[in-house]
Specification:
With about 850 residues, this protein is α/β, with parallel strands linked by helices. The strands form five sheets. Strands 1, 2, 5, 6, 9, 10, 11, 12, 16 and 17 form a ten-stranded mixed beta sheet that branches. The chain has a six-stranded parallel beta sheet with strand order 20-19-18-21-22-23, sandwiched between helices. The protein has a three-stranded antiparallel beta sheet with strand order 13-15-14. Helix 2 crosses helix 5 and helix 7 crosses helix 35.
């Protein structure tokens, strides 16, 4: 008798007659029979508590090899994940079949990052199984929330870039658009952040160590990827001069498939992540000779390629590894998409009708010369034909305005690692520069400025320029950002090809960041306007009249209060952090970078503290606040790591000082990730979006916070501009220099010390930091931070300080009227439906991809 049968006998539950065990989990989408065979349709288990119990116990017994009574929480979680996965399997295989049969144009999303978050909750919502799963587990004496907490999210991204990619593939599936996401299966991903005496310490993130139930490995579909070597010219059988690559070494790319379910629509797309392995992983002869390390050296070398996200590149070895990563995943991805077309006898001249490769920033841009290499060297095409097809297959999204973030590669490194690709890039550039010279005769400066190969002491390949030359479209990710791309960053290209440039403002998926993250608010919205908003977020506009309803405002405040209590419980359990829930929750959660200006936030906090302890400010007049930070700094970014240490040091002092800790507190939970964001965002009252105007491409944290009812204090930067325009100036706390004003100040010569000398409060705050008040009396600890502000202040924090404090005073005044504040919060929710990733994807479909949902 199986455990399920025993369970049924024990509970006297009926066994559904129409249910048969599913075998869907045995057949992945890469299953390719060599001969035609008849397969029974793969059917999902029935939507019933009893059916779910049976599937769960089957997975626990057969896959985990344990009985329920002896199972661990991890056993139970893995069995639960496999059970939910089985409900998606038939839909996944059917979606794949439909796409293949229709030869539908597919969006191939190439991204070095996918910050997915936990998968279980998303899958339960997509299959409408949450209540059934909860009831089924309860029947087994288990708690869904306990098992949900066991899941370790994949740390496959660094911030907004990876989270945006995850939002987009969610929207593409929900909208029924054929899509395959391509990326890297980093073994350790982004590091796990810990604080040791307030300082960031990076630890490996072993997200795979307890099992990865959402992935399907397919080693039989591995792709060989070549590196190094030389090229040679030869004459083919038709007498045509050709070039071929003679690589020096290679690795294998093994695909791991993830399901990407649409919301309640039966569609399941695919995310395919690549893991590097050696072509010859183990040398038995060397091992038997006693050199055990050498016997596995090839495997260790190959696995390094996909070991971690963004290896530290301050060394030549780190730079080379990064380029290896980028080429590895695009070579695998292009081969994966193109080879089935070749096997089916399809003409690659129709490739632009079958796919659009979306380049998510510059990391995958090496895909452009890779496609050219395939068409020229493997398919034997002429250059013009290959270039025509290539330029219709790629679109490029630029995600930055910072010059240092526009990737460049030393030509000697690229020539050593990818010699054939460098040759192709040189020719692409030469032919492009002919166009430039014809357009601007005699203008050598223009030619040099637009060249994809920068000349100088070190010859470098400008990847953003290469992408712009080859892409059918180039887009920014917010109206201001796209305008600055056209006017400044890529201005010469926009003048040459004005129609190539467009804008698609970013968005976030409401399924994860409202429905899952904030179920209390989701229920309140649904009670008011129905469920349609979940897939048509602009219907939130229907909430506008409810902002005038006192009862609705009261219920809205109750939701926010409950979310604060829930966050407090989560932080206490996770980190031992005490979060006061009786005060404003002032949130700054984003990657730690100078341009995002966490330094300005610290100056505000230190100013309040200094004013209170000096007697200049009556503590009884201070609006009680908890300042909540979440941020990771890149391991090699010293100033950013010093800023984290300063925040934690300020927190330690303020939280222990009885003169202020009844009104001010600072919390900084370590290891900020998607899961933590889903706890913080619903509890936030104030959203800090204070980057220097003209530096943030868009931001998506600003959208998540506004959609969950936080009011924004921010500059006119990135998508802040559009948020302010939509919610209204009266519901947004604007401050700071505009982008033209900031640019003009820097052009005229910015002297940060002049602001320090002219503002007594700013001087007092900086002097307090410099005095050692937050470093045990050691003035040297934060001397580099202070010196950076006073001597350079690259992102004008001191110039915006006074305006920022004035805006914070307006925040205090507004928060004092809780009814009016709640009205503004509701209007933020109601008017931010534009910031759905569904709308972003619709814009991509219309302006760039020119494909449509598969019916």
């Amino acid at each position: 008798m199986s455990e399920y049968e025993s369970f049924q006998a024990m509970t006297d539950g009926p066994r559904p007659a129409d249910e048969t065990p599913t075998t869907a989990r045995r057949l992945g989408p890469a299953f390719r029979p060599t001969h035609p065979i008849a397969l029974a349709p793969v059917t999902a288990p029935a939507h019933s508590v009893d059916g779910f119990v049976r599937e769960f116990l089957h997975e626990l017994n057969s896959d985990q090899g344990v009985q329920l009574a002896r199972s661990s929480v991890n056993d139970q979680y893995l069995a639960l994940a496999a059970t939910v996965r089985n409900y998606l399997m038939a839909r996944w295989l059917e979606t794949t079949r439909k796409i293949n049969d229709a030869k539908a144009k597919t969006v191939a999303y190439l991204s070095a990052e996918y910050l997915l978050g936990r998968q279980l909750g998303n899958a339960l919502h997509a299959t409408d199984l949450e209540q059934i799963a909860a009831d089924a587990l309860a029947a087994c004496g288990l708690d869904l929330e306990t098992l949900r907490a066991q899941e370790v999210e994949p740390g496959l991204g660094n911030g907004g870039l990876g989270r945006l990619a995850a939002c987009f593939i969610d929207s593409l599936a929900t909208m029924g658009v054929p899509c395959i996401g391509y990326g890297i299966r980093y073994e350790y991903g982004i590091f796990a952040q810990t604080f040791v005496e307030g300082r960031q310490v990076e630890q490996p993130d072993p997200w795979l160590s307890l099992g990865a139930p959402w992935e399907f490995p397919h080693p039989e579909a591995a792709v060989q990827v070549n590196f190094g070597g030389t090229t040679e010219h030869y004459t083919d059988e038709a007498g045509v001069e050709r070039t071929r690559w003679l690589p020096a070494w290679n690795v294998l790319g093994v695909p791991y498939n993830y399901m990407v379910p649409g919301y309640l629509n039966g569609r399941v797309n695919t995310l395919r992540l690549w893991s590097a392995q050696a072509t010859k992983a183990f040398d038995l002869a060397i091992f038997n000779a006693g050199d055990y390390a050498e016997a596995v050296r090839a495997q260790t070398f190959a696995e390094n390629i996909t070991k971690v996200l963004y290896p530290e590149d301050s060394t030549p070895q780190g730079k080379e590894l990064r380029l290896q990563q980028q080429y590895f995943f695009v070579a695998c991805s292009l081969r994966d998409f193109i080879q089935p077309l070749l096997d089916a006898g399809d003409d690659l001249h129709t490739l632009p009708d079958r796919v659009i490769f979306q380049l998510n920033d510059t990391h995958p841009v090496i895909a452009i010369p890779e496609l050219m290499r395939i068409l020229l060297d493997e398919e034997g095409w002429e250059w013009d034909d290959a270039w025509d097809v290539t330029t219709r297959c790629f679109a490029y999204t630029c995600h930055t305005l910072l010059p240092e973030a526009l990737e460049v590669w030393p030509a000697d490194l690229m020539g050593r690692l990818l010699p054939r690709h460098l040759e192709i890039i040189y020719r692409i550039n030469d032919e492009f520069l002919q166009t430039v010279r014809a357009t601007y005769p005699g203008d050598d400066a223009k030619v040099a400025a637009m060249s994809a190969v920068g000349e100088g002491s070190v010859r470098r390949v400008r990847m953003a320029y290469l992408a712009t030359i080859a892409a059918t479209k180039v887009n920014g990710v917010a109206e201001l950002h796209s305008q600055l791309l056209r006017d400044k960053v890529l201005a010469d290209f926009a003048t040459l090809w004005p129609d190539k440039f467009t804008n698609v403002t970013n968005g976030v998926t409401p399924r994860r960041f409202v429905l899952q993250a904030n179920p209390r608010l989701a229920d309140l919205i649904t009670d008011a306007i129905g469920v349609g908003w979940i897939t048509d977020l602009e219907r939130l506009e229907e909430l506008v009249p409810f902002a005038e309803d006192p009862d609705f405002r009261s219920r809205f405040r109750a939701v926010k209060a409950a979310n604060k209590q829930f966050l407090a419980g989560q932080l206490a359990a996770r980190d031992g952090i005490v979060l006061p829930t009786d005060r404003m929750v002032d949130v700054m959660i984003k990657r730690l970078h100078e341009y995002k200006r966490q330094s300005l936030k610290v100056l505000h906090i230190v100013t309040l503290y200094q004013q209170i302890i000096s007697g200049a400010l009556d503590v009884n007049t201070v609006t009680p606040r908890v300042f909540l930070f979440g941020a990771k700094a890149a391991p090699g970014y010293k100033l950013a790591k010093d800023t984290i240490y300063l925040i934690n040091s300020v927190a330690k002092v303020i939280n222990a000082d009885p003169r202020v800790n009844e009104v001010l507190s600072v919390v900084f939970p370590p290891n900020y990730n998607v899961t933590l964001a889903q706890r913080i965002v619903p509890a936030a009252d104030l959203s800090e979006q204070i980057s220097l105007a003209g530096k943030e491409a868009s931001g998506t944290g600003n959208m998540k916070l506004a959609l969950n009812g936080a009011l924004t204090i921010g500059t006119d930067d990135g998508a802040n501009v559009e948020i302010r325009q939509l919610v209204g100036d009266e519901n947004f706390f604007l401050f700071g220099l505009s982008e033209p004003e900031a640019a003009d100040l820097q052009h005229r010569g910015y002297v940060p010390r002049a602001y320090y000398d002219a503002d007594p409060q700013l001087k007092a705050a900086i002097d307090l930091i410099a005095s050692g008040a937050f470093s045990g009396g050691d003035a040297s600890v934060f001397a580099p931070f202070v010196a950076s502000l006073l001597s350079e202040d690259r992102f004008l924090a001191l110039a915006d300080y006074r305006a920022y404090l004035d805006a914070q005073a307006r925040v205090d005044a507004a928060y004092a009227d809780q009814d009016a504040w709640t009205r503004s919060s509701i209007l933020n929710v109601a008017r931010c439906g534009f910031f759905s990733s569904d709308r972003s994807v619709a814009d991509y479909l219309d302006r760039i991809w020119h494909t449509a949902p598969l019916r």
